[in-house]
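User: For documentation purposes, I need each entry recorded in a consistent format: the amino acid sequence on its own, followed directly by the corresponding structure tokens. There are two entries in this batch. Please keep commentary to a minimum and don't merge the entries.

Assistant: Recorded as requested. Entry 1:
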Amino acid sequence: MKKKMSKTGVLISFEGIDGSGKSTQAQLLDKHLRLAGYDVLFLREPGGTPVSEAVREILLSRRNDGMSARAELLLFLAARAELVEKTITPALDSGKVVITDRFADSTFAYQIYGRGLPERNVRQANSFAASGLKPDLTFLVDVDVLTAHKRLKRKRDRMEAAARAFHERVRKGFLKLAEKDARRIVTLNGHKSAQQLWQEVRTHSEALLERRKVRKSY
């Protein structure tokens, strides 16, 4: 029997409501670590594999505005299950730094706090879908809903177009998650400039890589 490799890479996730600036910071970290010589894999959720990208289209299309909360949850988890098994786990086993724009905390914030689904059921289902995988470090870029919505220049997708009250619940959910897991989740003030936020992201990320002794690829 082939022996399973132990996890040698690290998983860093970025969270926050749409328009918070999380994607910008994730991209900055991706570029910085590549230039520094690390083997980096950058992903987004839902997405990252052909199956997961197809599920993403279903989830975000405005044609599906009437989707039920349970169906929405299961689709997000299906996309995550495929991504974890086919992409993230092999990357971590090979020593890569995996950066993902959203992961399980988004499911907890959006489906538990936003949609009101039972926490126990959501967490159990996510644990199964993600094979128990959790990020080593998570950045929560927090900003008020009104500011976040003003930043969205493009046409809003199905999730972004939900009522403001929904996004307020999601934001509060993220903050509650960060309070409960302050050792993993670093909360950043999304009203700061992108450069100020980047300095904080860089400091925490480099400290993690040094602590975990992640090797560079060159």
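Entry 2:
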Amino acid sequence: MIEINAGGLRASYTDNTEDGSQAAIMTKPLTDKAEVALEFPDKLYIGTFGRSDRFDAHLDETGIWLSLHRTGTDDLRKTVRMHFRYGLFADILSDLAKTVDFNAGERP
């Protein structure tokens, strides 16, 4: 179920949790673009998301959830949901930190 408030600034959808219950999730507008690619040996799926689309990021007992949502007609609507356990997410953040040049923003 998708609900958009009268101002159009927030939307919620109902998501099924692991125990079968349902939880209301608040989504926010994307401020930039995102692209998702799923590559299989015989297929490639690419989805793009833009400023008219929405996202949700939240924590649960085992890790973080990131969801990207495009609403609209059946042929345009799509959702990508990713769950990263905390250990993997920590590894991702650590690797990202190693790629940052902390001196790049300093002035001489």
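Summary note for entry 2:
Residues 1-13 have pLDDT under 50 and may be disordered.
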